[in-house]
Design a protein that fits this description.
Elements (H helix, E strand, L loop, with lengths): L2 H35 L8 E9 L8 E7 L8 E8 L3 H9 L21 H15 L4 E6 L5 H8 L5 E4 L1 H17 L7 H17 L4 H15 L12 H4 L22 H15 L1 H4 L6 H13 L11 H15 L3 H8 L6 H21 L2 H25 L38 E9 L11 E8 L5 E6 L7 H7 L1 E3 L5 E3 L2 E3 L1 E2 L1 H12 L5 E5 L6 H11 L3 H7 E6 H8 L8 H9 L8 H16 L9 E2 L1 H17 L4 H5 L5 H9 L4 H21 L13 H17 L2
Helix pairs in contact: 1-12, 1-13, 3-4, 5-6, 5-9, 6-7, 7-9, 11-12, 15-26, 18-23, 21-22, 23-25, 26-27
């Protein structure tokens, strides 16, 4: 025998010794947990949560594991872990490669010859008997009702075991039936209503544990209560019965009012769903929880992934027992396994284990805080809204046998167009470079249509460097603009300013020169009087039309509108026109409506104001907000005419219709959304957040409760 093969055998034997000690440690930790939690062996029995998981989806798995765990007040420790194997790798290899010969002696892992479905009952029966022999009999089993363990214990072992059903499984089963009712399209049932009914069911279970009569009365009243029928209600769980003088609001229902059901079919179907729940009130009056077993199953999946098969050997047993040791002892089980295997516990291993356990403890304490729980609920609600809205906007994407259909709704509804988030900029310690800007244009902004530039002027506040050019417009100059600015175009495309010919450039050249001039400065903030409503929008539209928006955004960090700044500084004034401010505050007159003269005057006024107000950064906003505002204005001008029928039919008011149109939706889009997902789709689409974190249309409950029902009725009648 070669030294190498001998060394390999020693290493293999050492590995086996280590994993066997780890296996024993897992079982020992379970026994220690039992002795610590249940020291008296004369008691009638304990209550424990039981659940089984399979290593393969479906019911043809070759392996399974079952956990028996103590209740929350006893620390949710693993009391027993049982692994079932339908095959043995060594036996299969021997029969396949050496048929007819007896299988060599080995630790065979096969301990189950039945189907995969019967593993749960068999494991449960084995665990109950073993715990009883160890002196800790089980009186109550907490878990789902998906197996025949109770019946088999009574039939095979003559044990009358008591069962506590898992509360979450019961509520989820009711929810499954409600969603099936929704999918059948027999009645109009929204997800919000389903979630509300499930919440009422949880409340009934939580408040009536141990009281069968009250629970049955509460369950019997849940469905009538949603329709405004309080004849079955009691003051204990119904606010209307407690004080009938106050108008009762169903706060979790879609529109804070009772469900409307003119035909009575919806209530009839919901009564059918709740009939078996009411019939099982006696069993549901004493519910338990097996969620700790779900956590243990997840921990097993980390050590024995379902994509890999460990069931042909004891490897799966070791991994399951390692999970039990981890839950009971924490990460220090690794050090203890090393010690029992004759190895050093490891200095760094111990240090790292303590660090992980402390971090886990802090994370658990943090996650149990009310604020953390509220945050999780908020995030879950946002994910549900985002998922529902995204699926509605995309149309049909994935469905069983959808590829066989010829007529499939695959039209994609446009994503939300942001309206512009005009929040103040968060600038660093260094002050930005302020550049005062003024424009002269062919007209004002009318119906979302941007005028063309005729003159652009800018001045850097500190250095006094100036930029000024006249631009050849592609649109005619309105009469009002000619009278105000004195700028007009002759037939030969020559520009006159107050009767004098001036040199002009085209818009492409002008924008390029302006960007090059801005690039000489760092962290530029554009300043304009009433710039949010006019100047910034016009210049962004001009830059976007010549495809220079990215370069412009890279050169400018934000904008500042001096109109709200002056309103705060000089709050006692009646007029905030730039000419009046310059004349009254600085005592000078200038040639107004000449862009360069306007810029020079505004620089002086801005410097004078800054000497009084140091918080001018509060009036800044990003250039992206201006760009998004321009896009939403275009969408509003394009989509609002199609929504005029909603305003005429009193479905919504003009501001709501403008929000719908500016977000990129027209009447045909709303009709598509309603066909695909009804009121739920409309609600999700309206409240889904856009790229700026704002709701697409609105998230105001009052508006949603008023508009969506009317809109649904309108679309249903006109479909």
């Amino acid at each position: 025998m070669s030294p190498q093969s001998s060394q390999e055998k020693v290493v293999k034997r050492r590995k086996q010794r280590f994993v066997i000690h780890g296996h024993k440690l897992g079982k020992t930790s379970c026994k220690k947990s039992l002795l610590k939690r249940f020291p008296c062996k004369t008691r009638s029995g304990m209550s424990c949560a039981v659940d089984t998981a399979w290593q393969k989806r479906g019911f043809d798995s070759l392996t399974s594991h079952t956990f028996f765990m103590s209740k929350a007040k006893y620390g949710k420790k693993v009391l027993k872990a049982i692994v079932k194997h339908r095959t043995c790798g060594t036996c299969k290899w021997w029969k396949r490669n050496k048929p007819g010969q007896p299988v060599r002696l080995h630790r065979c892992v096969q301990n189950h010859t039945g189907s995969a479905r019967s593993m749960e009952s068999a494991s449960g029966e084995q665990g109950i008997l073993e715990l009883s022999k160890e002196g800790t009999p089980v009186e109550y089993i907490e878990g789902d009702g998906d197996n025949t363990l109770i019946a088999r214990l009574k039939s095979n072992q003559n044990i009358n075991m008591k069962k506590r059903f898992d509360r979450n499984h019961v509520v989820k089963n009711v929810g499954k039936h409600l969603f099936q009712l929704q999918a059948s399209k027999k009645v109009r049932l929204s997800k919000v209503v389903i979630n509300h009914i499930q919440k009422c069911l949880k409340y009934a279970f939580a408040k009536n544990q141990g009281n069968k009569e009250d629970l049955e009365q509460n369950l019997r009243a849940i469905i009538p209560h949603q329709f405004g029928d309080h004849s079955f209600c009691f003051p204990k769980f119904c606010g209307y019965k407690r004080d009938q003088s106050v108008k009762y609001l169903h706060r979790s229902l879609p529109y804070k009012g009772p469900i409307k059901d003119e035909t009575g079919q919806l209530r009839e179907e919901l009564d059918k769903v709740f009939a078996p729940v009411i019939g099982n009130a006696e069993q549901y009056s004493d519910l338990g929880s097996s969620q700790q077993c779900e956590h243990a199953n997840r921990e097993v999946s980390l050590r024995a992934p379902k994509s890999l098969h460990y069931g042909n050997s004891e490897s799966l047993d070791f991994r399951v027992q390692a999970t039990a040791a981890f839950i009971n002892e924490g990460r220090t089980y690794i050090c203890k396994a090393n010690e029992e295997g004759g190895l050093s516990p490891g200095f760094h291993t111990e240090k790292y284990s303590k660090k992980c356990m402390n971090e886990r403890k802090r994370r658990m304490e943090r996650s149990s805080l009310p604020s953390s729980k509220r945050r999780r609920l908020t995030l879950k609600q946002e994910r549900c809204i985002c998922k529902g809205a995204t699926e509605v906007l995309e149309g049909a994407t994935y469905q069983s046998e959808i590829g066989l259909q010829n007529d499939v709704d695959v039209e994609t509804i446009p994503d939300a167009v942001p309206r512009g988030d005009f929040k103040p900029l968060k600038l660093q310690n260094s002050m930005p470079t302020f550049v005062v800007l003024d424009l002269e244009t062919t007209d004002l902004i009318r119906s979302g249509k941007m005028p063309h530039l005729t003159q652009i002027a800018a001045r850097e506040v500190n250095s006094g460097s100036e930029f000024s050019t006249y631009v050849t417009p592609k649109l005619p100059i309105s009469e009002g603009a000619q009278q105000t600015t004195g700028i007009r175009m002759a037939d030969n495309n020559v520009m006159y300013v107050s009767g004098t010919i001036v040199e002009t450039v085209n818009i492409q050249c002008d924008v390029e020169n302006f960007i090059k001039w801005l690039q000489k400065y760092n962290r530029v903030v554009l300043v304009a009087h009433n710039g949010r409503r006019f100047d910034f929008s016009v210049v962004v539209a001009a830059v976007s039309n010549v495809n220079k928006l990215e370069e412009f955004l890279a050169s400018v960090v934000g904008c500042l509108d001096t109109l709200p700044l002056f309103r705060k500084t000089y709050s006692d004034r009646s007029s905030y026109k730039q000419g009046d401010l310059v004349q009254d505050i600085l005592g000078i007159q200038y040639n107004a409506h000449d862009a360069l003269e306007d810029v020079r005057a505004l620089v002086k006024l801005f410097q004078h104001c800054c000497a009084l107000v140091n918080d001018m950064i509060k009036f800044t906003f990003s250039l992206n907000a201006v760009y998004h505002q321009c896009l939403s204005s275009k969408e509003k001008a394009k989509n609002l005419p199609s929504l005029s029928c909603l305003i005429a039919s009193s479905v919504c008011k003009l501001p709501t219709a403008e929000n719908i149109a500016s977000s990129g939706l027209n009447l045909e889009h709303l009709r598509k959304i309603f066909i695909r997902d009804g009121e739920d789709g409309l609600h999700s689409t309206f409240t889904m957040k856009n790229s700026e974190g704002q709701p697409r249309v609105t998230n105001t409950k009052r508006t949603l409760e008023t508009v969506i029902p009317k809109l649904a009725d309108f679309l249903q009648k006109n479909s």
